[in-house]
Structure formats: C-alpha cells, structure tokens
Amino acid sequence: MADTDAQKQENRIFPPPPDFARNATISGMDAYKAMCAEADRDYEGFWAKLAKDNLAWHKPFSKTLNESNAPFYKWFEDGQLNVSYNCLDRNLENGNADKTAIIFEADDGKVTRVTYRELHERVCKLANALKSIGIKKGDRVVIYMPMSVEGIAAMQACARIGATHSVVFGGFSAKSLQERIIDAGAVAVITADEQARGGKHLPLKAIVDEAIGMGGCDAVRNVIIYRRTGGNINLVRGRDVWLHELVDKQPASCDPEWVEAEHPLFILYTSGSTGKPKGVQHSSAGYLLWALLTMKWTFDIKPQDIFWCTADIGWVTGHTYITYGPLAAGATQIVFEGVPTYPNAGRFWDMIQKHKATIFYTAPTAIRSLIKAADADAQVHPNQYDLSSLRLLGSVGEPINPEAWMWYYRNVGRERCPVVDTFWQTETGGHMITPLPGATPLVPGSCTLPLPGIMAAVVDETGQALPNGQGGILVVKRPWPSMIRTIWGDPERFKKSYFPEELGGKTYLAGDGAVRDEKTGYFTITGRIDDVLNVSGHRMGTMEIESALVANALVAEAAVVGKPDETTGEAICAFVVLKRARPSGDEARQIAKELRDWVAKEIGPIAKPKEIRFGDNLPKTRSGKIMRRLLRVLAKGEEITQDVSTLENPAILEQLKQS
Ligand code: WTA
Q1: Cis bond leading into 619, ω under 30°?
Q2: Which of 80, 99, 260, 414 has the fewest C-beta atoms under 10 angstroms from its C-beta?
C-alpha cells in the first residue's frame, strides 16, 4: 500500500530524450495514439497486417480471429509456420548468418559467442537428435536445464519439430518436477549433469532421477543429458543418453515441421490461487508475433543493439525475451549463467561494461538487492563502471517502487536512458502495459499505458468500468494474439480462472488490482487480488505452500500470507498449528527450520517461508473460515483495528502477535 500512496503523490515526469524519440520505432505520443486508433477502428485488420508484415508464413492465413468458441480464441488459424524457422533460418536469409546471436557468459566468467549460423546448426542437429529417438510433433518434452546456449537450443529444437516444450525452472524440487512431468505427459526430459551458479555446482540430473523415481512418469522414454560440469551422475541404461553423443552424429540441417498457427509451442506452469500449478498453454504464431513486436516497440530493438535480459529460461520472461523475441528480431543478446552477486555484486555492471550492453532488462528485486550491496560497498556501485553503452533500461516481474526506479534511472541509466516498467504475466505471453521509450513520458512506479491493440481497463467486480482515480480490478476486454489458449488438460479451470461468468465470460481477468491516474490515465498495478504472492518476482500460490506444510507429519494446520519486504517485494509468512503442543524457544526454532527445509523439498527453495509463527489455533470465523486478512495485519507487525467480535477465538490474535 505504501508504494501506491507514494505513487499518488508522484509528480516527477521524465519525457523521452529527444534523440531517442527521433530514432525510435514508435516515435512520439502521436504515433502511439495513431496506432491505438487504428486498432480501435479495425481490430482484426490491425492484427492481420502486423502478422503478415512480421512473420514468415509457410501458408498464409485467411482468417484473423475466430471468436466462435470464446474464450477459446483462435488467431490466424488456417495459417502455417514454424517458430524456429522464423527465429533462425530467416536470419540466415536476411544477412545475419555471421552476426553474433548469443554472447554467453558462464558463472566463472568464461565467454562464448555463437553466430546465427552456428546456432541454426546446433538447433538442427539437436532437432534431428530428438527425432532419432522418436520424438515427434505434438509430443511434450520437459526441459530442466541451467541457463545455457544448450537450454535455448533445446527449446528451439522442440519448436523446430513441433514438439511442445515445458521448461521447469532449475530451482524447483524433484516433487515439483515430477508433478509437471506427469501433468504434461512428457515423453522425454532434457537436463544437465549439474548447474553452476555462484561458484557452486548443483545437481540437476540427480533431481530428475529422483522425480522419475517417485513414480507416475510412465510416458518418459528418455532423459537427455547436457554435460555442463562433468560432475558424477548415474546413467540409467536404455533410458539416459548424453546430449553430445546423440547430437554429434546428426546431419547439420533439419527441415522445419510446419505447424498450424494455434499449435501449442509450449506449456509453462505457474502458480494460481488454488490447487496445483496451472499449465499455461501458448500458441505458435500469435505468441511469436507478440514476442517480436514487443522487442520492436517496447525495446526499440535495432540491428546494432546488444540486448540483455537477466531472466532465467525457466520463467516466461526468459521464454519471450531470451529464447524467442531477440532471435526473431535478429538481435545480439547476452545470456548469463550465474547470479548477480558472484563473484561480487558488481557482476551485472561489469558485464554491461565488458559486453557493451545497450538494453538491460531485469527485475526490481535484483535492483533492490544491488542498491543495498552498493550502499555497503562502494566498489560494486554502478558508478565504478563504464555504463555508457546503455541506451534503455527495463523492469519486469513485480511493482517497482519509485525509490528503486529513481536509483536505476540515475545510477545505471545516468539519466540518459528511459526505463520501461513492463507489466505482463505468464498468461499474456508478452508485455501488456508499458511505456514506449521514444514516446511515453515516464512516471516512476507506473507502467503507464497499454500497448497498441491491448484493450486494458479497470473495472469493479461486476465488470463495470471505473473512473480514473478509483482502484479496481485489471481486465483486458478483447482477445490478443499472444494470450494463453487454455490450461493444459483443464479447460474448465481456464474459463473459471481467466474468463469468469461475473465479467461476462469474454473479458480476461488478470488477477491484479490497478488504478489509473486521474489526469494522465496511467496505470499503476496495486498487487494481486487473489492468493498469489510475488516473492522476488516469483509467483507463489499461498495454497500451494499451505498444502506443502500440512503434508508434514508434525503439522495440523497452516495459513500462509505475504508481508511486505524491502528486498524481495513480498516475503512468505506462515502461521502453523502443530499436532503437538505449541513449541517455544529452541524447539520452535528447530521445528521452523525443519519446516522450511520441508517446503524447499516439496516445492523448491524459492517457496521457503521467511517467517514461521506457531499458535494453538488460527483466527477463524464461527463457520471455521481462516481470517487471512487478520493474519496479514499480524505478519506486518501492525495493530489490528478491525472489529474481531465475529471471531470464534479472538484471544488467539494476541498469541500469534507475540510468537
Ligand atoms: C506481477 C512475469 C507490477 C503481477 C512477467 C503479475 C508486475 C505477475 C509487473 C505475473 C510490473 C509483473 N508491475 N506488477 N511491471 N510485472 N507483475 O506470471 O502481479 O511470473 O500478475 O510473469 O507479476 O507474474 P509472472
């Protein structure tokens, strides 16, 4: 809330630097407004033209949008293309063959460069390798890999043969991996022996073994292993194959499999407010179109740019702004294996300086932790580095507070570079609400205005439009090409989660609250309206963490809430009732540690509660409903001012406050 209040008083405005505006893809607000007007006037025509002009089609489409089975929208449905062809072959044809596609920097600082020609060859060989073990169009392949050229190549190779990939972030546990392998019905898992991060080697293959060992992954025929560290692994005969052994004997070209526009390019699991993670299913053509267009519009990508998105390929940001967008745009990009604090917290600035990055895209959590580090040690302050190559900065994944925004703008961008605060979601495929760097006057803490063609609005619970200045829920009123197509295997949940009947069944519900500025109409995101937390830019369902906790033999009941955290945005706070008496002192500390480790094993280290409080009970209404609203107040350390007379057990609040 504090940030929203700050935002209301925010009156700093930063217009685009004139030089930037002059050369920008979308130059000035008039150009932006003209595009919005075009989309208003002829929505389908607007998108059809973009899709024709920006993608290479094997078979052109004749129908732009099919709304007959809403909300299962179809875009460009009778067209055919191949995503990997668009990202790779097209660059060979366009004179980019010898251009560097990827500057890879390993955890230990070793740099490798890969041209478009080399990347094309690697992807083709890997695609042939996948085919050689019987993987075909429509099969699902789980990718559990470190940040690497091989990880990107694995995704592209799947796209090339029409297999649907599902990347699982390397920080997820064996249990989470198993659930995803089963839900997706994966026929193969591509992994690495280990990953190298922050000077440490962490097992990946051993976790895959553990996941498959838990049972249920019957569809998995093969595990393909990229040798990254040379660490010891166990090879299962008949199932496990080394990637290099499989790839080496393959021919260097592979005809792309032409797929329908709607063919599922990937499934990416994300947390929802209830139950298990949802497999967000994306299309091929509509998704790729938006990945490419937002590279052009939001990032103003130019042939000479050195683009760097610091996300992991395990998240949607890594899909759209590492694996697909930059390659489709023929850009040169930096891919980083490691972490921002190793060997020290100047790593990002050092890499920008060394590789002459021009566009830098990272998360507010990283910025906030680097502010702290720079405050503590002047040697890792960005002012110790030559960052003059930068021309544009971006932020993604969570709200950026105005203080962090200003620091980023001043110290990293040196007041020369626009900052694009990009609001979007796994489900939206690409940016939705964001400044255009050559057009939009910036206001710290606001993601400003929707991109052309994105019909975002703030409404009340019944779908009625709210006036500017009044907070409500964020919706998108018309379908757009890169939107989620369904939840893999659960179309009903897709409808309920994103197109609820209360809003008429055709309006996309983002799950975030928003408010528009009274004068400018600028959007500010006020946070999730459901039980989803955003910890360090990672989405976590409170229910998921609660289920993990109650699965522990010691735990009777658990309720999880978020509390504001200076660095991670939100932190996980768990209120736990044990089956035994409420512990205190050392025992409480010991059990809290046990439970934290338990959650790390059940879900992954990113889901570990920062704080665990024990009570004899939880605050409940007389009908037995846990009052999470009150727990949120307690977690923040604030006084409860609400009326608690309807509680079954008001005295419990005092106990939970102290524990
Ligand atoms: C939040 C990440 C404020 C939001 C691309 C959304 C943001 C969720 C911003 C999606 C932003 C993302 N300002 N909040 N610029 N960007 N969010 O699916 O709550 O991992 O719903 O996608 O992150 O997270 P996801």
Answers
A1: no
A2: 414
- Nearest CA among 177, 434, 149 for reference residue 290: 434
Q: How far apart are CA 143 and CA 134, in angstroms?
A: 17
CA of 528 to the centre of ligand 1 (A): 9
Using CA atoms, how far apart are residues 10 and 315, in angstroms rounded to an integer?
A: 31
Cα gap 303→250, rounded to integer Å = 32
- The token pair at 52 is 């024709």
What is the token pair recorded at 450? Answer: 């929707």
Q: What is the 3-state secondary structure (H, E, C) of 123-135?
A: HHHHHHHHHHCCC
Q: Which residues of the chain have pLDDT under 70?
A: 1-9, 659
Give the per-residue pLDDT at 2: 46
Half-sphere exposure of 314 (CA within 13 A, CB side): 18
The token pair that represents 407 in the structure block: 């620091």
pLDDT at 337: 98
Output the pLDDT for position 623.
Answer: 84
Q: Indicate which residue's Cα is closest to atom 24 of ligand 1.
A: 425
Whether 172 lines ligand 1, by a CB cut-off of 6 Å, is: no
Is ligand 1 within 6 A of the CB of residue 544? no
CB of residue 370 inside a 6 A radius of ligand 1: no
For 448-482, the three-class secondary structure string (H helix, E strand, C coil) is ECECCCCCEEEECCCCCECCCCCCEEEEECCCCCC
* CA-proximal residue: ligand 1, atom 4 (nearest): 398
Q: What is the pLDDT of residue 487?
A: 98
Q: Find, among 166, 131, 178, 417, the residue nearest to 267 by Cα.
A: 166
Residue 641 confidence (pLDDT): 87
| DSSP one-letter code for 441 | P
pLDDT of residue 270: 95
- The torsion region of residue 561 among left (phi > 0), alpha (psi -120 to 50) and beta comes to beta
User: Is any atom of ligand 1 closer than 6 Å to the C-beta of 321?
Assistant: no
| Residue with CA at minimum distance from ligand 1 atom 3 | 399
Compute the distance from residue 422 Cα to the ligand 1 centre, in Å: 8
CB atoms within 10 A of CB 446: 26
3-class state of residue 286 by DSSP = helix
Which pair of structure tokens corresponds to residue 563?
A: 């509390």
The three-class DSSP label of residue 491 is helix
Atom 12 of ligand 1, residue of closest alpha carbon = 397
Residue 83's pLDDT is 99
Q: Which strands form 222-226's sheet, in the order they lie side by side?
A: 240-242, 222-226, 188-192, 140-144, 164-167, 266-270, 278-282, 486-487
- Nearest atom in ligand 1 to the alpha carbon of residue 423 is 15
Do 395 and 421 form a contact (C-beta atoms < 8 A)? yes
Residue identifier of the C-alpha nearest atom 13 of ligand 1: 399
Report how far residue 220's alpha carbon sits from residue 582's, in angstroms, rounded to the nearest whole number. Answer: 44
Residue nearest to atom 15 of ligand 1 (CA): 423
In 343-471, where do the E strands start and end?
359-362, 392-396, 419-422, 456-459
**Contact indicator for 531, 524 with CB cutoff of 8 Å:** no
Residue type, 126: L
Contact between 653 and 626 under an 8 Å Cβ cutoff? The reply is no
29, 439 Cβ separation under 8 angstroms: yes
Query: Measured between alpha carbons, how far is residue 142 from residues 72, 151, 181, 264, 314 in Å?
Result: 25, 11, 7, 14, 11
